[in-house]
Amino acid sequence: xxxxxxxxxxxxxxxxxxxxxxxxxxxxxxxxxxxxxxxxxxxxxxxxxxxxxxxxxxxxxxxxxxxxxxxxxxxxx
Length: 77
Fold this sequence. Notes:
- By secondary structure, the chain is of the alpha+beta class.
- 47% of the residues lie in helices and 32% in strands.
- It has a single domain (5-76), classed as Histidine-containing Protein, Chain: A (2-Layer Sandwich).
- It is built from 2 helices and 3 strands.
- Helix 1 packs across helix 2.
- The protein is globular, with a radius of gyration of 12 Å.
C-alpha cells in the first residue's frame, strides 16, 4: 500500500461510519456499505431493499462528503 493511501483509507472509513450513522437515524437499512474514492469523487457499493433507500444513501454520502457521486453501484434486493 502506498504511504499516502493510509490517510485516504482512514477518511473513507470515517465517511462510511458517518453515512451509516445518519442512515440508521432515519431508519434506512444498508448492508455491506463501502465507498470507493475516485479522484475527487466517490463510488458507492452495498445492498438495500428499496430504490428509495438507494437514493437516500447517495444523497447523504454527497451531503456529508461534499463530493460528487460518479457511480451508485448499490444493489436493490
